[in-house]
Amino acid sequence: MQIGKYYKVQVGAFSVKKNAEAMLEKLKKAGHDDVFITYSGTSGGTSARKITVGSKVRVKAGAKTYSGGSLASFVYFRDHIVKELSGKRAVITYGGTVVAAVNVDDLTLV
Q1: Does the reported pTM lie above 0.70?
Q2: What is the rounded radius of gyration, in angstroms, for the C-alpha atoms of the chain?
Q3: Are 30 and 53 in contact (CB under 8 A)?
Q4: How far apart (Å, rounded) are the C-alpha atoms in residues 85 and 81?
Q5: Where would I find the SPOR domain in this sequence (predicted)?
Q6: 106 exposure class (CB count in 10 Å sphere: 0-12, 13-18, 19+)
Q7: Sheet holding 97-103, edge to edge
Q8: What CA–CA distances, in Å, run from 28 to 4, 47, 55, 89?
Q9: CB atoms within 10 A of CB 90
């Protein structure tokens, strides 16, 4: 996943800290220097994924544009790419063409 100018790679998600630490040591022994552990605070199988620039998303049924306008019916059935994010405002594209600005709460990750 591209984050700004960088690419992010996750190699695991563990509910037991000891297991995360064991994986960290395994990666270090394999020669990977820039490895670290983060804590997301989520549990129960919920995803810590969030919408970022470059995310593939779907627009929730009934959603409006960010300014309250209507969207064409086909918009709800296509996968879109997030081009810009500013607060709760997300600009989505389809095939490289800007479709609309929508509220990020009206998007789901695909």
Answers
A1: no
A2: 18
A3: no
A4: 11
A5: 1-84
A6: buried
A7: 97-103, 89-94, 80-86, 56-59, 107-109
A8: 25, 26, 30, 39
A9: 26
Compute the distance between CA of residue 42 and CA of residue 95 in angstroms, rounded to an integer.
34
Q: Structure tokens of 69?
A: 């306008």
d(C-alpha 31, C-alpha 18), whole Å? 20
Nearest residue to 69 (alpha-carbon basis) of 77, 56, 78, 59: 59
Alpha carbons within 13 angstroms on the beta-carbon side of residue 20 total 13
User: pLDDT tens for residues 11-42?
Assistant: 777 788 888 888 888 888 888 766 766 666 65
Residue 93 parent element (H or E): strand 89-94
Chain centroid to CA 63: how far?
A: 19
